[in-house]
Amino acid sequence: MTWTAQQLPQDHPPVKSGRIGVLVVNLGTPEAPETGPVRRYLGEFLSDRRVIEIPSLVWQPILRGIILNTRPKKSAAAYREVWTDKGSPLAAITADQAAGLQARLGEDVMVERAMRYGEPAIPAQLEKLMDAGCDRILLAPLYPQYCAATTATVVDKAADWLREKRWQASLRTLPPYHDDSAYIEALATDLGRQLDALDFRPEVLLLSFHGMPQRTLDLGDPYHCHCRKTARLLEAKMARPDIRMITTFQSRFGPAKWLEPATDSTLMAEGEKGTKRLAIAAPGFSADCLETLEELAIQGKEQFEEAGGEEFATLSCLNTSDAGMAMLETMIRRELGGWI
Ligand SMILES: C=CC1=C(C)c2cc3[nH]c(cc4nc(cc5[nH]c(cc1n2)c(C)c5CCC(=O)O)C(CCC(=O)O)=C4C)c(C)c3C=C
Ligand SMILES: [Fe+2]
Ligand SMILES: [Fe+2]
């Protein structure tokens, strides 16, 4: 039956105002660089079946019995190396990106941020947007390369929230942007600017993407192809024939075979074969985080220098750079087409 306004039940929710919401989402990070908060964060992250594709009956005893008793202490020490006055770099930068987008998109659009693991959680932030009258929401996972372990799990989480709703908001998702000209141009501009500001001329620019188990490529996940395409387009756009560009995959986790070549062994091999000056960039991360500030900038530098390298620089992610924010605005405005 159709209800008229007079017939609506007393407890009917207020009629919405038709606003548009944007939810930018990144991975998540611990609340503090201490063992307990890191254990909670890793417990949620590594229990996600999109991340660890091993049956729970097998995986949970390994996770609870071994990994969560050993890794949090070591990871917390690594987080302490990069922690800032504003907290975890990933959290602080994501918050600044959301605020910057809000300023660029104006009052017609309400921008919030969320993390897939930890706080602010995706369901709570979607609820906040809806409570503020947003009945159309763009979900924007800030992962340029599609991966089931990152992009898909964000969409799953939003879908779980929608499933519980009688009156759903309309949801759109920002597609992966690994080959989007706005992204390639932003990277080329920003990395070019950073290379020119270095006090040495690198022989090699290493493009390090987060790794994934080789099995996910065999099963059809496009992540590896997306990373390779980004690297190819970026190399062409940067047009620096004097710099040799190499694509690698970092952060191997567990004993299975991961995508190759690995960042750490490539850094060592380059040092050993006589490369003296090397810069490293991480185009797959939209914000600097543990993986860039500790694994690349601290550990990577040590690995390269111990193998004979002399000059090493880690270039920043797009973060809140002009090029990066303009790129996000362009892609989000395009996706909101028809809504604004
Ligand atoms: C950019 C895309 C990412 C993919 C793909 C990805 C896959 C993936 N990661 C792990 C395990 C860990 N990753 C960790 C940190 C971490 N990972 C990403 C991004 C991707 N991960 C980011 C942005 C971060 C940094 C978070 C921060 O707080 O700064 C960690 C935690 C740190 C540690 O203990 O080493 C783990 C563990 C797996 C298993 C995986 C795919 C299967
Ligand atoms: Fe990761
Ligand atoms: Fe790592």
Could you characterize the architecture of this molecule?
The protein has a domain of 134 residues: Rossmann fold. Helices cover 47% and strands 16% of the residues. The chain contains eleven helices and eight strands. The strands form two sheets. A four-stranded parallel beta sheet has the order 2-1-3-4, sandwiched between helices. Helix 10 links the parallel strand 7 and strand 8. The site of one fe (ii) ion has 3 residues, from helix 10. The site of ligand L6N33NVT has 22 residues, from helix 2, helix 5 and helix 10. Its main location: cytoplasm. InterPro entries: Ferrochelatase, Ferrochelatase_AS, Ferrochelatase_C, Ferrochelatase_N. Catalyzes the ferrous insertion into protoporphyrin IX. Its EC number is 4.98.1.1.
Largest sheet: 4 strands, parallel
- Order the strands across the largest sheet as they lie in space: 2-1-3-4
Please identify, by name, the CATH architecture of one domain.
Answer: 3-Layer(aba) Sandwich
List how many beta strands DSSP finds. 8
Q: Whole-number radius of gyration?
A: 21 Å
Q: Which structural class do you get from the secondary structure elements? A: alpha/beta
- Overall, the morphology is globular
Number of helices, where a helix is a run of at least 4 consecutive DSSP H or I residues: 11
